[in-house]
Protein 1
Amino acid sequence: MEIFRAPRVFLIARPEFLEPEHLRVEWRGDATAGERLAEFAGRICYMSQHNPASRTTAEYLENIKKQGHGSVLEHAVYVLLIEGISRSCSHELVRHRAGFGYSQLSQRYVDESHAAFVVPPAILGDATLESEWERQVAEAQSAYVHVVEALMQRYVWVADKGHRRKMAREAARSVLPNATEVKIVVSGNARAWRTTLELRCGEGAELEIRRMAVACLRVLQREAPALFSDFEIYLADDRQECARVTYHKV
């Protein structure tokens, strides 16, 4: 039985910017495609391709964030693969709808006989609690296997074995705990990511989704620092990482 004690986040897609020849911008400084796409969109609004203030892309986007003109950030979409989060965490994540798309592992189709499980952050470090928790999830997984086997026999009259497996798994998943690990692909534009990260990286957020959000923030800051540079990661009083942002409601 595989146990996750931290999420894993991978950037799997980023924006591609194809600058039109008749609207060339006087770029200053280095930037990623997503950052330049956002700057280009902003300059279209005022036809300021000649860059009168001679700002670098980072400086331009800093001013965009400061002014709260977040609509231009919606053009830059980043796609993350997130692993090692629980079902309860993913169900909180998918509540963020505007600007996001989700594709999540299906327990109806996927065999969970060897599923992984995610230890809640609050339990980590307490050997007694961890041991009891592992015993409970192991028992749940064993119950799942038993129910699948029993239902495969009950539905033996179903000729299509693939459909029979689906019928068994969709019923057996009911005994799996919220701690069952899920894999999910999340696409979101930079504005949507900023809003979600502001909410879920905060000290008031539930610990597991906060941990996941901070991991996502680190990936996005590496990929597009100018879009996420005003987030600061720090250690809260509960000794868990969280983050605060300088520019709200961009």
Protein 2
Amino acid sequence: MSISISEFTIEELWGDQTFRIPIKDNQLVLVGENGTRKSTVANLIYF
């Protein structure tokens, strides 16, 4: 059985930000400056 995620949503991260992250072809690339919470988003998806 294969699991595929097409979208990941984080509501009120740190109480002030909501992220809606599309995932296409089972791949995700997070790009941004330091301090833009890329690692936090990646950790939430992983766990």
